[in-house]
Amino acid sequence: MNIVVCVKQVPDTAAKLQVVDSHVTWGDSPLIVNPWDEYAYEEALLLKEKFGGKATAISMGPESAVEALKTCLAVGCDEAYLITDPALKGSDASATALTLAKAVQKLGDVDLVLLGKQAIDGDTGLTAAMLGRHLGWTVLTQVIKIHEIDPAAKTIKVERFMEEGRQVCSAKLPAVVSVIKGINEPRYPSFMGIRKASKATIPNWSIADLGIEASRVGASGAFVAWPEIYPMPLKETKVEWIEGGSPQEIAAKLADKLIAEKVI
Amino acid sequence: MANQVWVYIDQFKGQATPSAWEAVSAAKSVAEQLGSGITALVIGSGVESLAQQAFDVGVDEVVVCEDGSLADFRVEPYAAVFAKVLGEARPKVVIGTASTRVRDLFAYASIDLESGVIVDATGLEIKDGAIVVTRPVYAGKLLCNEVAKKGQPLLVSVRVRAFPPPQSGAGKSGSVTKVSAVLGEDQLTTKVLDYVVEEGEVSVDGAAIIVSGGRGVNGPEGFEPLRALAKVLGGAVGASRAAVDAGWIPYSHQVGQTGKVVSPDLYIACGISGAVQHQAGMRTSKVIVAINKDKDAPIFNLAKYGVVGDLFEIVPALTEEFRKRLGK
Ligand SMILES: Cc1cc2nc3c(=O)[nH]c(=O)nc-3n(C[C@H](O)[C@H](O)[C@H](O)COP(=O)(O)OP(=O)(O)OC[C@H]3O[C@@H](n4cnc5c(N)ncnc54)[C@H](O)[C@@H]3O)c2cc1C
Fold first, then answer.
1. pLDDT, tens only, B12-27
2. If you ran DSSP here, which 8-state letter would residue B117 be given?
3. Using an 8 Å Cβ cutoff, are A174 and A47 in contact?
4. Backbone φ and ψ of A141, nearest 5°
5. Are residues A115 and A151 in contact, defined by beta-carbon separation less than 8 angstroms?
6. B209-325 classified as CATH 3.30.1490.20
7. Cβ contact (<8 Å) for A17 and B141?
8. Strands (E), A47-137
9. For a 10 Å CB count at each end of chain B, is N or C smaller?
10. Domains of chain A, with CATH numbers?
11. Do A165 and B195 touch (CB under 8 A)?
């Protein structure tokens, strides 16, 4: 089984974000592997341990994203490739999916692509389905359990997380699968793994290497633009303390307030 | 079918989902300024009655694709119909509720349509004839105004509860156009086998009231008083990641950055400290109540009403109080 994991590097979840002229910065907060993607690499490693084959990590991003790929190597992925090119700046989900699709095609002989449910910066959750469409493969999003894979018959059976409950489905490989928390417990890199990863060379691919025309990616290829980014306006909330001599008294006062708010 | 504004009606087993019609309210907010009527697209099996419901909330025209192969949502056959119909009509915008289905559908079909997708919109506006879509990014720490750069229709999903449900009783009727499925069963790669549903649990998705518990509930049985309060209020039970990771309650209840994003009228946080990652999932709730032993817990910076105290005393007292007042 040859598996590709797509990872994105994002600012830490606790980062204090600053916005100047719609440009987002995060000071000296660390950059991390998108938390959802940790479930994707863990699942790739579990499947590789079970079926053999190769787990390859790819990331599209600036040169700093090589660190995210090193994490993937440190936990046990076999190879990693960084897709980086000035022309990719300003790519929307669609242009990103196209780029990843070309990278998957270049790798060749891939049975399964795994991604996290969404990236915690753009928060779109669109890439998996778009990538699957570009490749013409089965798309299974929000997967919380892979029940079985039959590499010979090229089938997969999964449980997907939906509003109404979990949908159990079977499908044909190759497939693009996005995963969510609950599917596994991501491992930490070992000391040996970190040492090995720090010595690894990670090849860079440009869009020319992938045979993509510049007009199809970056700001020029994007179907949507985001001219304005700004902090969420803070709702002026000053907490009103509900106090009283007994829980019953507090409960009665709070009930009055909530009924007056018309939220009950 | 010259309407510039379309809505896609999300359904599950032939019933419109609770938030499906909110898309119509969002559509109305832009249709008038664009001088357009609204066309609704319904795809599924056993969905023909949704056409009348669409007219009832003020839609002008309906396009229905009814086919046995569309009984369960699968992205391939749904997107094939969607891309065909919208590829011919090419309206300015299609709006749907931000469910998992609609996210997949819009993403997949946008590749065929060669047009843009904007998800989880909380606001829509027309500026100089263009649709400007506001959506939260970076876990709701920032807002982003997005526009279509090229391609048409722009596909926009609106966050659950960001728009009110539309008034029904419009008493309209209009043309219903029937279209056929595009892909046959033999062309599909996915089969839906079953659904696993947690019995008797009210989902936090779209709930108007959520009573949420964190590490402070101190064990699986600590959720019992919260369930009792939720029941009296007709609400759902949520949880922090700490409570979920401890195995006290299933993941489907988790609220936050790596859980569900909710926006109820009332969010009662019990024994939750209010970490940024938890805030990411509940910050936009209309009224937040926090019950916590620690007066300095960050959740109180977000709360409108705060109670410093033991949740095991306050929550049962609240349940009792509301039981009396609501006559339950
Ligand atoms: C990448 C990432 C993603 C994350 N995603 C999420 C997410 O989606 N959702 C989420 O919730 N967290 C998430 N977290 C975790 C988050 O950082 C916090 O660790 C978590 O929210 C803490 O949960 P808590 O408030 O229940 O626990 P704690 O922070 O331990 O708080 C417990 C609170 O209970 C109070 N308390 C204790 N006993 C009582 C009592 N008897 N009565 C009243 N109050 C009491 C305490 O004073 C304390 O404030 C994420 C973290 C990371 C790094």
1. 999 999 999 999 999 9
2. E
3. no
4. -100, 165
5. no
6. no
7. yes
8. 54-60, 79-83, 112-116
9. C
10. 2-221 (3.40.50.620)
11. yes
